[in-house]
């Protein structure tokens, strides 16, 4: 399976896709790769440091730290993808509640990303209360406030 990921990665590079990782192949094929959520990370933890720490438990396919778009700073959590379920289970048992870069981290299996809005379903968009006069313009009868 690792060879398939390497071949897929070479193909993507040959067609000009340089930011894609090989983990996209592993997670889509038979659920071989297992992604873990890692919370409580230090703002100084890098993706390389996260990958290096978790590689003690097995083959790390990808380590990703989620960054804030505005400040370009870590949000304090990330994801580590392992090549096998056994490696991920070992990392979960070994790292959950342990310290990494001076912070206690919490490790759990990653859940599927939820999408809100956009397709008509999901949560409504909060727009705040109506402006004075705006509510009266949308109704055909006068408002009786007692």
Secondary structure blueprint with pairings:
Layout: H1 2-14, H2 23-28, E1 34-39, H3 47-54, E2 60-67, E3 74-82, H4 85-95, E4 99-100, E5 103-104, E6 106-109, H5 134-138
Antiparallel strand pairs: 1-3, 1-6, 2-3, 4-5
GO molecular function: mRNA binding
Domain RRM: 34-112
Region (Disordered): 120-146
Structure characterization notes:
There is one protein chain. The chain has a domain at 34-109: RRM (RNA recognition motif) domain (Alpha-Beta Plaits, 2-Layer Sandwich). It has five helices and six strands, in the order H-H-E-H-E-E-H-E-E-E-H. The protein has helices at 2-14, 23-28, 47-54, 85-95, 134-138, and strands spanning 34-39, 60-67, 74-82, 99-100, 103-104, 106-109. The chain has a four-stranded antiparallel beta sheet with strand order 2-3-1-6, with helices on one face. A hairpin with a 2-residue loop joins strand 4 (99-100) and strand 5. The radius of gyration is 22 Å and the shape is elongated. Mean pLDDT is 76; it is low at 14-30. GO terms for molecular function: mRNA binding. Keywords: RNA-binding.
